[in-house]
Write a structure and sequence with these properties.
single chain; 199 residues; mainly beta; 2 domains; five-stranded mixed sheet; 2 helices; 5% helix
Length: 199
């Protein structure tokens, strides 16, 4: 897990009695009332004279009118998960779906997270309430149900609202497909796959 932080360039562009105009990373000025936050999570705590006090990731910072506060620590960098490849170059890891333990196989060829009926039931998914579709498999066309998972966790990364395809039969692993992987930055270091959450 990375413990580094990324930085925000903050500027105070205007002040009123109970409001401040803050520019984050040279973007569009945002007018905040005391207690409100910018889209990036910068919270206005107080306004006094030519100074606005803001909070970024639990730290207070005084901004003076017309001056820049460069490299204010923002939220922690996205969590990284490293998966060691097996002897066949497959990336398999333990995780969970809706809190139920699952064995994942990273599969960039799968459109969505794909799992068998037994695993879906263990995760409390009433998949037959989902949208029925059909999938081309090695054994021909098979029915699947498209559902949305409440939670998919891999290491320190947890995503909500992940699309999944539930197969009528059982599967040896859960395929961690692109409905999860699209929200990751993926890179390789030797025999390791590194996933870093983007959003």
């Amino acid at each position: 897990m990375s413990s580094s932080a990324f930085a925000l360039d903050l500027a105070l562009a205007g002040l009123f009695a109970t409001r401040a105009v803050i520019v984050v990373d040279g973007g569009t000025p945002q007018t905040l009332a005391i207690g409100a936050s910018t889209r990036e999570g910068v919270k206005l705590l107080a306004v006094q004279g030519e100074v606005a006090t803001v909070e970024v990731n639990g730290r207070r910072q005084a901004l003076r009118l017309g001056e820049h506060a460069v490299s204010v620590d923002s939220v922690a960098a996205p969590v990284r998960v490293m998966i060691e490849g097996d002897s066949q170059g497959h990336f398999v890891a333990q995780g969970s779906v809706n809190g139920a333990s699952m064995r994942f196989l990273v599969d960039t060829g799968a459109t969505a997270v794909s799992m068998g009926a037994a695993d879906a039931r263990r995760a409390g998914i009433d998949f037959r309430q989902g949208r029925q579709a059909y999938s081309q498999t090695a054994n021909g066309v098979a029915p699947i149900w498209i559902v949305r998972l409440n939670s998919v966790r891999l290491g320190g990364i947890e995503l909500a609202g992940v699309d999944a395809a539930i197969h009528e039969g059982d599967m040896p692993v859960v395929l961690l497909g692109m409905s999860f992987l699209n929200r990751m930055q993926m890179s390789r270091e030797g025999n390791r796959l590194i996933l870093e959450r983007r959003y």
